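Late entry, written up from scratch paper. The run itself happened at the end of the previous shift, but nothing got recorded in the book at the time, so transcribing now.
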Amino acid sequence: MKRLSVACLALLAMNSAWPHAHAGKIDDSMPDAQKIRFCERVRDFALQAFYDREKGRPMKVFVEDGSDGARITNFVVKRIYEEPQISSPKKAETFGRATCNEMMGSKATPE
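Output as recorded:
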């Protein structure tokens, strides 16, 4: 019985030590911190655009105001609606993140 208890406690301790599937906290002193956060939001918009496309909903775009944010997000959303090769949520997220990183000139985010 004692061994079973020790084994259960060991499993619980190991489970909390496993790394999580999301990126770590981003330090604000890092030069690309804002770009990384922005590209994470673009990734979320890409995922939403994929779900909207799959459900036959109209494309949601931002008003172009000359900023990089609206331009990049609209580009990603339009491409997701145009490209049938983006056929899964994972592909939409990957496309959104990669396109944003390329257009912003930032490094890839750590996973």
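The radius of gyration is 19 Å.
(Scratch paper discarded after transcription.)
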